[in-house]
Design a protein that fits this description.
Low-confidence stretches: 1-28
Radius of gyration: 18 Å
Cofactor: Zn(2+)
Largest sheet: 12 strands, mixed
EC number: 4.2.1.1
Mean pLDDT: 91
Number of domains: 1
Bound molecules: 2-acetamido-2-deoxy-beta-D-glucopyranose, zinc ion
CATH topology: Carbonic Anhydrase II
Number of helices: 7
Number of strands: 14
Protein name: Carbonic anhydrase
Shape: globular
Helix content: 10-25%
Structural class: alpha+beta
CATH superfamily: Alpha carbonic anhydrase
Oligomer: single chain
CATH architecture: Roll
Enzyme class: lyase
CATH class: Alpha Beta
Function: Reversible hydration of carbon dioxide.
């Protein structure tokens, strides 16, 4: 996570069925359409251990915050039933724009979340390989973040961990053309996106809930997390295509909620 997309939709994508297949790369959908690439990353001096140094004002919480994400989800974290929140994502039967931001691959979409007495709107969903959150310390091959906000700038993330298993119709369709955005800044179209099965999955299983942070700069806190306790599944062939593009984008696991920031701790120790 997590960028709020200032997104100018290529409106044709939503109205022209032919576009999803035939017209890509024509005047209807110029190939040179690009998106801005993130200035932070996951390697060496732009990686998570150094996000604070990239901008000490903006990213201070990355190094000092005490409610940072991701964390290990265990019995100390509250759970609720998935039907205690209401999560909906609009259908995109002709596909939606799929962007490589360098730090993740992302699909800007509309949707709603009612949770904790707040009404949120969806901005986008994006992917991490491997997962950022861990359940009872165990990581998963993938995590999906649906990023919501309210007009007064409250943020919530609905998250799904993904394990290896059978093909998932939605994920296969999202990643249909992922090889076309192998270079940061590139965009393409997903296949058809229908979210009923995913909405049902969330509703039918327990969720972990806690107040944490964005897992990317500026590591803003007060983010309400709703994480399905039951992982989805993805087939290894699809996963391999995605991993080739994302490569690696998981922030390291943070300290327990309320505990000293791990970077602050090491700074103190080294003095
Ligand atoms: C650092 O972040 C601050 C606050 O968001 C911003 O005003 C400033 O331009 C940023 N500095 C750099 C060098 O990007
Ligand atoms: C989301 O909804 C807004 C407002 O109705 C619309 O302008 C925008 O094109 C929609 N975006 C997508 C990706 O559907
Ligand atoms: Zn994320």
């Amino acid at each position: 996570m997590t960028r709020f997309t200032q997104f100018t939709v290529c409106a044709l994508a939503l109205v022209a069925p032919a576009f999803a297949s035939c017209d890509y790369g024509t005047h209807l959908y110029p190939r040179e359409h690009t998106v801005p690439v993130s200035t932070f990353g996951y390697n060496d001096l732009i990686g998570p251990l150094n996000w604070y140094s990239l901008n000490k004002t903006a990213n201070e919480l990355c190094a000092t915050g005490q409610h940072q994400s991701p964390i290990v989800l265990d019995s100390s974290i509250a759970t609720a039933h998935g039907d205690s929140i209401s999560f909906t994502v609009e259908s995109y039967p002709f596909g939606a724009e799929f962007e490589n931001l360098g730090s993740t691959v992302e699909v800007p979409v509309n949707g709603t979340l009612k949770a904790g007495g707040k009404d949120y709107k969806l901005a986008q969903f994006h992917f991490h390989t491997p997962s950022e959150h861990r359940i009872d310390s165990e990581y998963h091959p993938m995590e999906i973040h649906f990023v919501f906000s309210t007009p007064d700038k409250s943020t919530a993330v609905v998250s799904f961990l993904v394990d290896f298993g059978v093909p998932n119709l939605l994920l296969s369709s999202v990643f249909q053309n992922v090889n076309e955005i192998a270079t940061p800044g590139e965009t393409t179209l997903t296949g058809p996106l229908l979210f009923a099965a995913l909405e049902n999955h969330l509703k039918s299983n327990a969720i972990f809930t806690y107040s944490g942070s964005l897992t990317t700069p500026p590591c803003t806190e007060g983010v309400d997390w709703y994480i399905s306790a039951q992982p989805l599944q993805i087939d290894t062939a699809t996963y391999g295509k995605v991993k080739d593009v994302i490569k690696f984008n998981a922030r390291y696991t943070q300290n327990k909620l309320g505990g000293v920031n791990l970077l602050q701790n090491i700074a103190n120790e080294l003095k």
